Amino acid sequence: MGFLRKVFPPKRITVAGVFLVSLLLVIAAFFIRHMTLIAVFAWLTLLVTGCILLWRGVRYFIRRSIWRLRNRLIVTYMFIGMVPLTLLILLVGLGVYVFVGQTAVYLVMTELEQTMDALKVPGRVIAANPGAPYEDIIKQVAPFVRDRFQDFQIVVQNKGQVFRYPAGSKLAGAKPEVPDYTGLTIVDGQYCAWSHTKKGDLIVDVVAPVQREMMAELVPHLGRISISGEGGELARRKLNADQLREGDVGAVPPPASQVDPEVTWASPVMLVQWGSAEEKDSGLLLITTRPSALIRAIFSEKFEVAQAVLYAFLVIAVLFLMVEIISFIIGLSLTRSITGNVAKLYEGTRRVAEGDFSHRIPIKGRDQLAAVNESFNGMTERLEQLVIVAKEKERLESEIEIAREVQSQLFPQHSPRMKSLEISGLCRPARMVSGDYYDFLCLQETNLAVAIGDVAGKGISAALLMAAIQSIMRTQLTSSTPMLAASANGASHTVYSTSKMVSQLSRQLYLNTSPEKYATFLFGIYDEDDRVFTYTNAGHLPPILIRRGEPTLLEVTGTVVGLFPSSGYEERKLGLEKGDLLVCYTDGITEPENEYGEEFGTERLVQTLIQHKNLEIAEMTTKVMDAVRNWTSAPELPDDMTLMLARRNA
């Protein structure tokens, strides 16, 4: 039942079900002869599902067989020892096979080229004696050529005159434009050696058939040699299939020993069309020989090197096999010590998993396995302490998550609604909590206070200082007494001093925080009646005013807050026109770098804003954030990203 559950688990029972249904359909089709299409489909389905189930069964048995460490080590020894040895033997055999084949081809081709060089002699002699009778010259050189070729023909062309040897030859001469050439060709369906010599108007062609006897004498007793050019374009045009039968030359020598196999190798040979060297066709030189025959051909027939080499190879192979068997026996003996210690470790881990941290493993010996057991005992002693640390870490992460949720509530939950101003802000922390700060707050009548800041540092300490800044600013805004001023239409309205509030904030931070804590800060108040934005910039990045597509950087009016006991700050007033876009941001927007080290920068920020100028202010904020995030190649944000946009719409 266990095997069936492994091969046919409940979540995969559909494959087994399809297999059984297909099997029933196949059986039914065997008795009902009119279910042809259904039978074919059932057979295909049965084949596919059967392969899947067979693979699952094989995989299950493999996993079961190597679950025990001892069996796994035995399999490992097999792969480490037997498989490389087998591959080495195959590699050596393949190397010997390739070496024998290539060397045999080299010997035959070298001898064939040297033999064909004899055909150059008549042409050279005739060209060197232009005035001598051709018949006398040929009678002198004919014995030299017949030593290598039993039969040959010569065609001499000189200023329109043609001379042929022997007298009854009907061989046509080569074309005048053919350059000097010596190689193989096919004449009247027969492989021939051809030498073409040209000197001025004198053209001499010597053609000799490549016969069995000549091929057999190239490398005596090497083996069977056959030349085939069947299948080439030239052969298809000029020759019939019957004319391209392979001509076997010689015979394969008997084996010198039991390890002396036949080796068959092929090498391409170039066959040119008779009379023209432009069209070419590839033939094959096939050689079947033995290693012993090749060695005898290289050295001598009397020297039995081949048999000695083969016997030496057998001795080395037997030695390798003996070493492998001894290594396997040693590996099995070592397996007992390894598996015994692993079994103790398994029992120890099972006891620890049940919560028994007092269990200890007996230590024997001074090897690495004993050191592992000792380390396990030390691990169980420290495991309880690690559990306590893990619980403490979990508690801290829970508290940080609570801090993140609390901080998210400190940011504005929705943008205030103003008649003439759209405003939106967004902060994406680099960690779970952020040191950046932005805030909106509607004041008396038609005033809107906005603030953005960047606390030095990251993490919990920066987030706490950010919360302190928000608390101080909101307290000042609700407790301070504004001044009265006349608006453009003559009505009186309240006026807040941004520079005074920033100065008070800086002093309180200096008195109530550590010396290294400070923040850049921008605070401003928008007057709905006059459409004027009054601001104080305490060391923060200059805001950007985009008016009619042209950006302008607003000036910084003081140093950072919280760093000095008393700092002077100034305030500036900015009249906003219809369509003006005011951009306030932290360095997490402009300083992120891409994979080439290039910062996002203010220019790219302005271009992104202008590109999405027709969107809602909240959508525009999200587009900028996404553009910065796509720009950086870092897996996480390098710094907190905060952006606040305000656009006058009326």
Describe this structure in words.
With 650 residues, the chain is α+β, with helices and mostly antiparallel strands. It has helices at 2-7, 13-31, 36-65, 69-116, 120-128, 134-146, 212-216, 233-238, 291-298, 305-353, 368-410, 459-479, 498-512, 587-590, 601-611, 617-631; strands spanning 153-158, 161-165, 181-187, 190-199, 202-209, 223-228, 263-273, 280-289, 421-428, 436-442, 447-455, 483-486, 492-495, 519-527, 532-538, 544-547, 550-553, 572-575, 581-585, 641-648. It has an eight-stranded mixed β-sheet with strand order 2-1-5-4-3-7-8-6. Strands 9-20-19-16-17 form a five-stranded antiparallel β-sheet. α10 packs across α11 and α12 (459-479) packs across α13. The protein is elongated and about 135 Å long. Mean pLDDT is 80; it is low at 230-248.
